[in-house]
Amino acid sequence: MRKAAIYSYNGAGASMRHLSAHLGDAPILGRNDPSLVGDRMLINYGASYLTWPCQRHWLNAPNKIYNAIHKLVAFDLFDEHGVAHPKWTRNPNTAKGWLEDGFKVLARDTSTGSEGHGISVLKSRRDTVPLVEFYSQYLGHDDEYRVHVVKGQVITCGLKHKKET
Fold first, then answer.
1. How confident is the model at residue 54 (pLDDT cuts 50, 70, 90)?
2. How many CB atoms sit inside 10 A of residue 23's CB?
C-alpha cells in the first residue's frame, strides 16, 4: 500500500494531526510543498485550487472538491443523481414568490460561501429581495451534515457541530 501525505487547505488543525497519526505520521503539507509528495498518495483535505504536477497521485482531486463547495454545481449534480436538496433560483421574482407563499428564503451573495457568510435571511413578504448570486428556500432546520465520498462511494456521513467559543 502506498504511503500517504496530507494537504490541508487551512493548516494543521486537530483533525489533520489525528489523521496524520492514524496514517503512521503521514506528513501534512502546505501550499509550497509539492516536492515533498514524491510517490505518496496525496489526501487533499478541502483544496479546490491545487495545480501541483502530482495529480495522478491525488486521492480526491481539486475539481471534485470544487463540485462539493460550489453550491450551484453541487445542486446540479444532486439533480443528476437524484439527491434531494433545497429549491433554488437566480431569479429574484421567483424568490419573492416563495416569500409570498410563506417560505423563508436565503439570499446568497456567493455560491462558495461557508459558515453562513454572504447569506441574508428573508422572512416576510414585506422583505426587499436583494440582487444576489442566487436564492434558496430555507428548509427550517439548523442541522448541517458532512458527507465524505472516496472514489465515488460514500464512506461516512455525520452531523457537523458548531465550534464552542
1. low
2. 15
